[in-house]
Amino acid sequence: MTTAAAIWGRAEQQDFRARVRGCLLGGAIGDALGAGVAAQTVDEIRATHGVDGVSDFMPAYGRRGAVTAATQLTLFTVDGLIRAQVRKDTGAWHPPTDVHRAYLRWASTQRDWGPDERRKDNGWLAREEWLYTRRDPQSSTLSGLADETLGTLDKPKNPTARDAGAVLRSAPFGLLVGWEPQLVCQLAVECATQTHGHPTAYLSAGAFAVIVHGLARGETVDACVQRALALLASRPGHQPVTDALKQALGAVRQGIPSPARIAALGNPEHAEDAIAVAVYCTLVSEDVRHGLSLAVNHDGPSHTTGALAGALLGVMHGETALPPGWLVELEGRATLLELSDDFAMEMTQGPALHGPSASSQGWLLRYPRA
Predict the structure, then answer these.
(1) Taking the model in full, what pTM does it have?
(2) Which of 1, 43, 157, 231 shows the greatest Cβ crowding within 10 Å of its Cβ?
């Protein structure tokens, strides 16, 4: 496996950072945009916000721009991936374990009142006080992380869980642009089984990561989906995910985008239908604002489809395409930016930050090897 620095020059590295920022900030914006209407039908949304539906942040959790557990967990996915790279110097190389440890640190934020300063292995992210709020995580996610047992493909947690909880935290796997797509898919699948053991849930996570991965490399949405379909084809239980993605591609040719067309893609409470909606909204979008408006104005969990579409649109267009008015009000924006830049730095400059011969102590305090 190579790092981005090994295959890209300086300009490409800057483009990579813009796409990482776009992916994480875009996903959070979509999450926040949908959070205020997540429990409403499209008729209820229109009755309150007019025929065009919601077009701006609505109050959720006591403020505008608030994010849900989807964004919280995505942050910890990134943290786990950085820690995996840092721990590689020790000879310990098992990213699913490092990501699982990160998810357990998130689980602590859902139980504790605030950061435990006595824990020296937490790193900086687990000391961010704003993360210590419960924002409607799926019960399957909470139960999957209720103990320290690592779910695996052979022994997954929650074998019947097919909601989108695992998909929602999986965009960062796709940002491993130096990895081959099949390895990205496998890592996302393995990490999904830590909480969601139904094949449609963990294969949807793998497919979503592969789509993000292709977009991060500058490929078209259609090409990314086709690659995901090819990688799914040999995996048991892939058919519902395959059918959902093919339906999303086909829906593009069926007329003007509308809530009814999105409803025809299925129930976004299910992982495979949620990624189908996100892919469809990305394919037919005129820009980020248009795509996200489509993704949240429909029946179903608007924050789920908003977060997924936001990640796709953000990684495809980069941070400068994100509406600045939404960025200003976004909860946790400073943390998202800081973590985005740390991830980009680790993936492009990791050997200069840590290694067998010399390491930056400041970096190891942020991302401990323990």
Answers:
(1) 0.95
(2) 157
